[in-house]
Amino acid sequence: MEDSEKSFGNSPLLDYLSLGKSYGPYGIVGAAIVGLIIPVLLATIFVGKRKGKQRGVPVKVDGEAGYVVRNVRLPELVEVPWKGATTVAALFEQSCRKYSQDRFLGSRTLISKEIVTVSDGRKFEKLHLGDYEWQTFGQVYDRACNFASGLVKFGHNVDTRVAIFSETRAEWQIAFQGCFRQNITVVTIYASLGEEALIHSVNETQVSTLICDPKLLKKLTAISSSLETIKNVIYFEDDETEKDSSFSGSISNWKISSFSEVEKLGKVSPVPPSLPSKNGIAVIMYTSGSTGLPKGVMITHGNIVATVAAVMMVIPKLGTNDVYLAYLPLAHVFELAAESVMLAAGAAIGYGSPSTLTDTSNKIKKGTKGDASVLKPTLLTSVPAILDRVRDGVLKKVEEKGGLAKTLFNFAYKRRMAAIEGSWFGAWGLERMLWDAIVFKNVRAVLGGQIRFMLCGGAPLSGDSQRFINICMGAPIGQGYGLTETFAGAAFSEADDTSVGRIGPPLPCCYIKLVSWEEGGYMTSDKPMPRGEIVVGGFSVTDGYLNNPVKTNEVYKVDSRGMRWFYTGDIGQFHPDGCLEIIDRKKDIVKLQHGEYISLGKVEAALMLSNYVDNIMVYADPLHSYCVALVVPSHQDLEKWAQQAGIKYKDFAELCSRAETIIEVQQSLSKVAKDAKLDKFEIPAKIMLIPDPWTPESGLVTAALKIKREQIKAKFKDELKRLYE
Hints:
The chain is an alpha/beta fold. It has 4 domains: 8-49 and 352-480, no CATH class; 56-80 and 492-586, Luciferase, Domain 3 (Luciferase, domain 3, Roll), CATH 2.30.38.10; 141-276 and 323-339, Rossmann fold, CATH 3.40.50.980; 592-723, 2-Layer Sandwich (GMP Synthetase, Chain A, domain 3). The protein has 24 helices and 27 strands. The strands form 5 sheets. The protein has an 8-stranded mixed sheet with strand order 4-3-13-12-14-15-16-17. A hairpin with a 5-residue loop joins strand 21 and strand 22 (580-585). The longest helix is centred in the N-terminal third of the chain and has 19 residues, at 27-45. The radius of gyration is 26 Å and the shape is globular. It holds the Pfam family AMP-binding. This is AMP-dependent synthetase/ligase domain-containing protein.
């Protein structure tokens, strides 16, 4: 994911303002005149405010205290996408038969790759990729069945577990579905997981077969003596894969096979399926974990199909005409849930990666098209950290262009904003088409030009970024809220909801209730909106944590009807239309020396708006009356400031340590804090600049790029101590 950060930090979205190219030397002026006069007149004539829509309704649940809300669509919770699809195995088989001739999984061919050395000596891999090659639903079904039979020949049965330790790719999904043909539980492990967490995950689940990328084979070598139960290693083949003979020779008790070898074994010796039940454990998913070792969440088949059924009701016109670009980690619940929805809907899934996503992504060879340009997806998922970087990058590029281009962009943006918030005609009629053709078409082309709906999850998305991407991409963003513990199924904002900063009503598969938290001052009796801890109940709520009954009983509760409820630790409030908004998190609230409560997450979200901030962790010691912060600065912005200020430095680390640099960043933080109306005690009194980025590989952020507070505190404990001296 470090590549992901670089790729989006230098996104081609930053280079989109080629406004004059299509219009000749004076065309942009004429376009501006048309854009300024005609839409304003039309929007004025056809103005009309959209009526509010009820999306969630309060309900009375027997024996349940708190404020409970369900989706307005159905009086009863939805459990399956259609009759008979009670397990992932059944859903997969029925979809593959229904859409057998339609394209399903697509991957790009590798034409060539080369290593490029830049001026400072750093080396980068550059890829020349071809078109997408597709497998139909029917072909994928046959491959999954063959793989399943091959696993049985390896000695697998219902009592054994398979782990997938790999980046996202088509074979990941084929292996995943193949395991369920024989009722084998799948353990999902992040490819970026550290050695200690990897050993813990494999040993705790007693995995007998581990499926991995070939590039991860050597990583396994270093810890092979600590992996107690592994008998088989199956590696996915790449275009240039050759099995490392030194690896296979060094692990005498492991049988190492290629994915195609297992498929061939199953094809010549087919085995009848042994299908799971809806209450059976489909997946043990290890959270990326913001504290300590990752926990294994036990996800049932029923949990997965319930979330699938609910999301299919929310995304409009989802079907075989859709193309989904898959590039986020499949070991993350958000991506796995999204691909499961696409499977059920008959949509095509094209695989890419964060480092090859766009034409100027850091692994794309110059002259080669990125994944989005080739695939032209209609649906895309993202995490907030990426969208925030895109927004910041586009705005910086607009500022650099200046002049008429900047004026036109800003005016177009304001008109589209006004249209979305007010006039129906302005939002969806002629004015929208004009602004798209004049200004936003080039932005949209970066992601293929066909995006009609975006899904965002993994962390809260700021209202500014949500509105910005919505306007520039011309597509609604469905902001989802869910956890591994609810298989991503909790709340989801709907396509026709133009508000920002909210996460929509409960999905139709679950209830959401708020429970008062007196210590934090959040009560369901609060006016004008009830507030409290968010608790999710229903078919998407998972079975708990593997081998951890204490933690399970702490956050999972079962009511008198047998319904499971999960206590999220997040604080929310319900709007009158039944939409939920996250406003805090229990673990992020610290009581300072003089009794003030500070919400670390709220402060961090506000300070992230500083141009100098790439990442930040605010820290508050209860024995003091102020907070401090560790700031990972933006290389580009800080170096630009240093150049303008005439500051000489040896390297970036030295620049970060200079007093004048710290003062400049702190002044910027103070400004955005005041703009966000933070109290004085919420503004960090002291900061320290950390020159190295926080990445999933470093263990300091999750795969969704959320900070791991405890790990950062442990790594920088001496620095935090010095900030309070």
